[in-house]
Amino acid sequence: MSEDDLNADLPAPDGDGDRPMSVAERLAAEALIVDVEGFEGPLDLLLTLSRTQKVDLRKISVFRLAEQYLAFVERAKTLRIELAADYLVMAAWLAFLKSRLLLPPDPEEEGPSGEELAAHLAFQLERLQAMRDAAARLMARDQRGRDFFVRGHPETVTRVRRVAYSANLLDLMQAYARLRTRDEFRPFVMDRDNVFTMEQALDHMRGMIGFAGTWTDLASYMPPGWAEDPMRRRSVTAATFAASLELAKQGQVEIRQSDTFAPIQLRRREGRKNG
Amino acid sequence: MAEEIPATEETAARETLFEAPPLAEQERMAEAILFASPEPVSIAELNARMPHGCDGAQAVASLQKRYEGRGVRVVRVGEAWAIRTAPDLGYLMQKETVEQRKLSRAAIETLAIIAYHQPVTRAEIEEIRGVTVSRGTIDQLLEMEWIRFGRRRMTPGRPVTFVVTPSFLDHFGLESPRDLPGLKDLRAAGLLDNRPVPGRSEEPEEDEDADETTANMFEDD
Amino acid sequence: MAEEIPATEETAARETLFEAPPLAEQERMAEAILFASPEPVSIAELNARMPHGCDGAQAVASLQKRYEGRGVRVVRVGEAWAIRTAPDLGYLMQKETVEQRKLSRAAIETLAIIAYHQPVTRAEIEEIRGVTVSRGTIDQLLEMEWIRFGRRRMTPGRPVTFVVTPSFLDHFGLESPRDLPGLKDLRAAGLLDNRPVPGRSEEPEEDEDADETTANMFEDD
């Protein structure tokens, strides 16, 4: 995008009422648009915009700042500059804030007042600026290896060699992360908690069958605690049925069912009652 | 030193055996140990290395006085002590200057926020900066050993916190995190408060915890 | 510093321009340079590094006098000068020569499992690592006093469990085992992204090599 394009697209003196934009302001506005990539998010941009008000951050007009920001977003739109989503979210929020600040507070309405929201935004800007100043002061301090120095020649008077194993927290955490992420991807294994095998059913029925002289419902052969959960009930029903067929095949029980879907009944097969 | 309690017979012999060296000698020992080590040495380590009965803290205190105004100084780094060249002579040391790793603006800001707000969670850092903190930033600071993981915050999700390390203090010539430049003013101005966003109720039941976390570390002044 | 010496006419002006710092200041400079230099420093180099007009030889001579009888001394090494620990205090220097060695991968993994899962039995460690844990690994960690025996587990065989020690917490800068960052935190800090280059075999002498390659395949999610 050439300079001319930018100039052509920046005639509207928006934001500041009727006063036409000064050359300096127009240059600043241009710089903002062109540099949008250089901003670290909407808060950073707001902080830069707030500098044009040339007042103490505590006395800043959040209303005017909101207008400046919205004007910025508008200009970006006309210039077809893609703004990241968080810039647009901030624009929507500031439009909302602006309307709250304009309208008299509605006693019916829930939530914080426009003034409270504006004050918080001002606080956020002041805090971010304070942290930037603090960072600059920190970096301006005398630094080790630049302004002051450590002993250049660590002593090696007596070489008593003793091995000390060391590791830092990063090593430890990376090792654990390595193990745990491997774990998440363990090969699929059938979860056998809710499965009742035919072998189990056979064992269980053999213990009970001796007492089953009369016709008894198959369901009563199911072990306790398996009927409640649907998954377990399915498994135990299938296993018990299969086991009863197996016992019939071995000649140990007789099975009958009076009708389709009627209860299945079985009883011990007596040695004398052949056939 | 409480060794001068008069004792009788064989107990006396044992006392003498463990008699601490005179203070001047202890100072020499502390001097030798601090000179030899590029890294700060804690009083505990000093005591462990000096003969039985020595008082490392006292030895270091008088050593520090002795080096006042000299070309090297005895400085405190957290709970430990080190000898460092006087900063006003840094210009003589071009030869020793190590190439400083260039930190990004994001990293510098993140570091400052951790130092001034510690212990601080990642979400709080993001709230202050208004942008998400990229993985690389925290990772880089951890690797440089300028920050480390602190206690978990006792709020839902129990997020980890970050704090600065003794090696951060050593690098910036700070005795403790309380000596960060401008800390008092920032706190007085309320800029280190954890002010909730209006309208967003932030776990009111956790109030005491939030208190504790912001208060800690800088408590004693 | 030395600017206030009154002098006459234009020679004075030139003199002032090149005025050497007072000897005490030169001594400070020599002290800082000798301290920070990894190698002994010759008088010629000292003169080259100190401001114009300084007398390195004289500065070193008076520095040497100042350190007489102290814990460190200014000594001549060939044609150059250096600060060295007083020989009678050499016995204090033993700890400085401890050789640092990285813990083996097996040990660090075992340690990580104990820290995150404590109290944990040996069988459980093996289940998580997917390989048997050699006796030496456990012994090493016990010897370093980073782990200790915990209570016996009340299961058949009553196996012993392992837990981490306060000295482990101290070494890793943790206040309690609960402050160990979780997987989510690790991911957030970018620690789960360090995927080794495929095909680059790490520590081929270790028995868990096969193990490692399969682990890497799954490391990104």
UniProtKB/TrEMBL annotation, chains B, C:
Gene3D superfamilies the record matches: Winged helix-like DNA-binding domain superfamily/Winged helix DNA-binding domain
Region (Disordered): 191-221
Keywords assigned: Cell cycle, Cell division, Chromosome partition, Cytoplasm
GO BP of this protein: cell division; chromosome separation
Biased composition (Acidic residues): 203-221
Domain of life: Bacteria
Protein name: SMC-Scp complex subunit ScpB
